[in-house]
Specification:
Layout lengths: L7 H9 L1 H14 L8 H23 L3 H17 L6 H15 L5 H11 L17 H12 L3 H13 L4 H21 L5 H22 L8 E6 L7 H12 L3 E4 L6 H11 L3 E5 L6 H13 L7 E5 L1 H5 L3 H4 L4 E2 L3 H13 L1
Parallel strand pairs: 1-2, 1-3, 3-4, 4-5
This protein binds cobalamin (B12).
Amino acid sequence: MNSDGSDIQSFTQLRYDLDSIVDMAMSIMEEEGMFKGKDSRFIDYSRSDLKIHFQYVLEALQAGSASLFTDYVEWNRVFFRGIGLEYVVAPTFRIIRDSLVKIGLGIDVDQILAPGMARLSESYDDIVIGFEGKPHAKLAESHCRALLMGDRERAWKLLSDAMDNGVGILEIYQHIFQASLRNVGLLWQTGRISVAKEHLFTSSTQNLMARLYPFIFIKPPSKSKVMAACVSGELHEMGIRMIVDILELEGYDTTYLGANTPSDAIVSMLKESGAKILLLSATMTYHMERLQGLISLVRSDKETEDVTVLVGGRPFLIDDNLWRRVGADGYSKDMKEAIAMIASLEEA
Ligand code: B12
């Protein structure tokens, strides 16, 4: 990812020394009086938040991606507003920026950070939550409401009625499941629902997906082998699982390893399965370095060097060029695009 000539060693070293850079930022916060009158819980949270912030910022810097940093700043403004702590965001990011400049990374940090830093002093509107103007908006809204109320049976009835009326599995996955999961993410981010509700919503969606399987796993595979996994540490697996289900429906022979898969396990299973297409998913920006390492591992093994590697997940929706920087052969924004891309590989 260091196409700009910055020193990969310094990023690796910095990740290794994360605690000392966090200590440096904590001392600046203390000097500036940010902890005055605050209890130890606030100070502990500030330390753990700083650690996460630095992980994100280092990934954005290493990827040379201003948009990843700006997105992270925006995300924090919304999140901290939800918990009544919006006022900590601007000074925290200023201190992060100053600490990185002080350390010296051999790159122009401001070139990447400036657009996001500028956003901190601008006003912003509340983010839009809901389905207005989106495909199948009414169904998505009712589905979301039913699952938030814990009424899985109502949600299932809505889906089966929709299928009886000709709504296909891909549409349900994309416009109902994907749209409502993202909506629920925003409800959590803005402090409107608890993390428990968000978890319940996710597990209910998994339950509904399983009920759809008799409509998906209907015929033996007739197309190529495709293997899919999430990088190690990555727990978001619904998106890639949906793509795999649709591929299965389309006749591909899929091997799905799920969330949080160690890199060497992915490579050995790739050899065992004989798949020539590998789909890798990562949602958290701080997993990009790991993803890049995994792709290098695939490329460096004689038995897997010719495998086509496609990537996807939230960071790739934010930065259109990121897939190249992690060394992939392609990416796509959603299941429809992914299926089309894989079909074109099959034809090639
Ligand atoms: C469900 C969920 C979880 C579940 C995941 C469970 C599971 N079994 O997957 C759990 C509870 C584990 C979780 C944990 C966390 N989460 Co979460 N989560 C979500 C949520 C609500 C839905 C994710 C989802 O399924 N989306 C729907 C799918 C269909 O969309 P998708 O993943 O983007 O996939 C599509 C495309 O990206 C693409 N695609 C994806 N992969 C691939 C791969 C290939 C090869 C291709 C071609 C395409 C492709 O195609 C897919 C289908 O169209 C999102 C909200 C959101 N915006 O997505 C937050 C969200 C991603 N989570 C978030 C956060 C902060 C976290 C935590 C850090 C929370 C915490 N404090 O612990 C942890 C991190 C865990 C980790 N280490 O991975 C934030 C991320 C913010 C950011 N700035 O990065 C989000 C955006 C919520 C929010 N609005 O704030 N989460």
